[in-house]
Amino acid sequence: MRNKLGTVSFLAVSFVAAALPLFAHHGNASYDTEKTVTVKGVVTDYIWANPHVFLKVDAKDDSGNTLHWMIEAQNIIAQSELGWTNVMFKPGDQVVIDVTPVRNGRPIGRFRGRIVINGQEFKPLPR
Q1: pTM given for the model
Q2: Which of 9, 43, 49, 99 is a plausible cystine mate for 93, CB 3.0–4.6 Å?
């Protein structure tokens, strides 16, 4: 009985230790939450999957160079509750999207507000 209790305790502690890095995954440390960037460009891919929905957009910077933006949203359940669908964005769509950028200046961000698809503003459903 004592050996069994030790094994169960060991497994419980191991499980908790293994799960701790998962909580760090959802941090905001890499994002500049004080800043909003407007990305105007063309959709190249839309990934409707868990754990996060992603949108890839090609946009020009001020010098005319193409930046390949990767824009992150929440999971498909959370996005569905806002009215998003798996066909909301299609390759070739012209978009204007406000994002919270990463701090290191790379073209990566999270959705933050305005979304315009082919000239039509998307209005999320009220929660």
Answers
A1: 0.77
A2: 43
Higher pLDDT, 15 or 114: 114
The 10s digit of each residue's pLDDT in 95-107 is 999 999 999 999 9
Report how far apart, in Å, the C-alpha atoms of 116 and of each of 56, 64, 67, 97, 100 are.
Answer: 15, 21, 19, 6, 16
Domain annotation for the chain: domains and CATH numbers? 37-121 (2.40.50.140)
